[in-house]
Input
Amino acid sequence: MDSKLKFDSLLIHGGSEPGPAGATSVPIVQSSSFAFESAEGLEDVFRGRAIGSVYTRIGNPTTEALERRLALLEGGGTAIATASGMAAITTAVLTILRAGDEILSSSSLFGGTFSLFRDTLSNYGITTRFVDPLDLEGFRNAVNERTRLLFVETIGNPKLDVPDVPALARIAHEAGLPIMVDSTVSTPYLASGSQLEADILAYSTSKYINGTGTTIGGVIIDRGVFNWNSPKFPHFEQFHKKYRNFAFTARARKLVHKDVGACAAPFNSFLLTEGIQTLALRMERHCSSALVLAGFLKEHPKVAWVRYPGLEDSPQHEVATRLYGGRYGGLLTFGAGDKPSAFKVINGLKLAKNLANIGDAKTLVIHPASTICADYNIEEKTLMGVTEDLIRVSVGIEDYRDIVEDFKNALDSI
Amino acid sequence: MNISVNGKETSVPENPKRTIDSLLEELNVSQRLYVTVELNGEILDRPVYETTPVRDNDVIEFLYFMGGGR
Output
């Protein structure tokens, strides 16, 4: 039935199996390990002859239900749910790259990913070069003999630039490389992994997938479309021999995910299967209210500038419209002129919460330059599009009139 | 017709049209999209599941990447 259902129905029913006593919610299987009736039965699972839950770090029925649903929403493939979005990206990258390999990454990144690539992985011999994601030729020319992966965010956070992901995918594929896509900000509702021509997706489920700011989680999607049988990936040889186009998932499941241990907690997986059911409704509201707020801010005399791909004068409006079907997400940024004014606006907001998150039902704001990007120097902040006057807004699903009123009052007070 | 499936001797009705693909369905093998099939010690490419016949005394292994760990 699953493959015939449309997206909004998959959000609710995708990957579901009948629960005990007719339960229609995904059961929470809060158990660290699972007993088998026979030694042969457990041996079969360890040998890969049978499917079964063994230990929750490796797999858990609640988490597997979430994984089945997320894979269907991306247009098919397999999924590995993780403890966080950063756990997903770390696990996925470590599955592909070894010391001496290089990531060719978009320079427009979430600060956590930037830090992972620039600081943490470089200590282990995995280096990253950052390229403007709008510069397709720059990406093409930057591929070298050490490159093993292209990495890009669908809508850069917080820069909000919108790269042509399918065009970048073609550049990767021409070079025999996979592309990994972080679609946290756009979600599969705006475009699935299949539509984006992504090989692997790694993103946070803590934001729009959860939708209510209760849960930290992440997911890796393997669409099963990349051919890992390549001299560039000798460490995939044994996995490709057995698992062919799902060699990535096999290597992640049997080695990196198992060894790193950043597994999803069953209760968190349950909360995500609940939250995701309203993703389509919420995203419609996030997108429409963000467009209204962006329009309001653009006209306000105390606002220096507004960045939102839904605005017709946005440099990426055309590509965003083509890729995301006339929806532009719930994130926008604007400039208050300088840092003191930005702080005054944030302090004047009553409805919007000042905190480090996005994708909540509640409207959220943050001043990235002094918080989530505080550790970066001026050059790096510029690369990420972070200026001292920038306020990032994650537009919630409250009545849009209350949201606009809140910003109007805060701006009028400065 | 007798075949070995994941180490177990299995009897299936005679059917000259039976392929690896139809056997997966016949035996109600879980997660058919992701299972790897080993036929007489050789891993099969997925596109040939539909054209590879199942013969008497074949040794077939269905393999998953879900299991394992400790």
Observations:
- Chain A is about 40% helix and 15% strand.
- Chain A touches chain B through 28 residues (CB under 8 Å).
- The first helix of chain A runs from residue 7 to 13.
